Amino acid sequence: AKAIGCEVGQIVKSLIFRNTDFPILCLVSGKNQLDVNKFQATSNMKLEKADANYVKEVTGFSIGGVPPVAHKTEMKTFIDKDLLTYEVVWAAAGMPFSVFKLLSNDLQKITDGKIIEVY
Q1: Which residues of 39-65 are buried (b: 16+ CB within 10 A; e: fewer)?
Q2: How far is CA 66 from CA 14, 43, 98, in A?
Q3: Alpha helices of 7-116 — where are they, by DSSP H?
Q4: How many CB atoms sit inside 10 A of residue 112's CB?
Q5: pLDDT tens digits, one per residue of 3-60
C-alpha cells in the first residue's frame, strides 16, 4: 500500500479455498481478515485451505500474484463489502509485486462476485 500510495484497505487480497464442488475465491480488503467459520456458516459451504500447488493449478498464478479474474478454472467469487467503500482498489496483476488499479464497482462487475461481510 505504501509503495503505490494507497490505504491498506484498498488492497484486494485474493484468497483461494477448496470446496468439494469448485474452487472459491474470496476478495478481501487488505485491512480485514476472512472469518472462515462465519463464511461457512452463512454460505453453507465448506472451505478447505488451498496449498500453493492447488492455487497454481486452478488459477494459473502463484500465491501473491493471483488476480481477481482470468483464472484457468471457473470459481465462485465473494467480495468483501468493505472494498466497495473505496472508489478505487488495487488488485494483483498476475505476478507478485504487480498490481492494477480499478474502480471498486468494476470489481464486482468483472468477477460477478457476491458481496459479503467477511469478519
Answers
A1: beeeeebebeebeeebbbebbebebeb
A2: 6, 23, 10
A3: 36-43, 52-59, 104-111
A4: 10
A5: 999 999 999 999 999 998 899 999 999 999 999 999 999 999 999 999 999 999 999 9
Q: For residues 58 and 71, give the distance between their C-alpha atoms in angstroms, rounded to a whole number.
A: 7
Question: Residue 101's domain is classified under what CATH number?
Answer: 3.90.960.10
- Say how far apart CA 77 and CA 91 lie, in whole Å: 14
Residue-wise pLDDT for 47-99, tens only, equals 999 999 999 999 999 999 999 999 999 999 999 999 999 999 999 999 989 99
Considering its fold, how many domains does the chain have in total? 1
Within-domain flag for 69 = yes
Residue 1 lies in a domain: no
What nine digits make up the cell of 70?
482470468
88 strand-pairing partners: 103
- pTM for the predicted model, two decimal places: 0.96
Range of the domain at 58: 8-116
